[in-house]
Amino acid sequence: MKIQGKMFIWLSVFVLAMAIVYGVWSKEPAGTTALFLAFGLCVMIGYYLAFTARRVDAMAQDNKEADVADEAGEVGFFSPHSWQPLSLAVGGALAFMGVVFGWWLMYFSAPLLLVGLWGWVYEYYRGENQNQ
User: Fold this and answer.
1) In 3-state terms, the chain is what percent helix, strand and coil (to 5)?
2) pTM score
3) Are 71 and 61 in contact (CB under 8 A)?
């Protein structure tokens, strides 16, 4: 994490320099403001990563002699197949079309959204994916 923190701090220095140069040359307030905000975001992320790196154990990426296999391990838990995102996508598409064509489409989209959300939240409490 130390490397990522340093990278973001150096990126923030670069973005600050570009914001100053852009602001002086262009005299355009929107782009200059966006670059200064990007500078602020880079500083926040870099500070967080550097702050967190002091409190966690050294990782393989912090060791210059480390191999790729040193960081190997379980990547995480990935959900099996699920039909719930399809229900949410169709319900969301109908809801947004309801804004365009008429609010009456919300009567069809709300049940799809609720069923999809309910099914996705409680997917691991019933059926074949139930946690033991």
Assistant:
1) 75, 0, 25
2) 0.53
3) yes
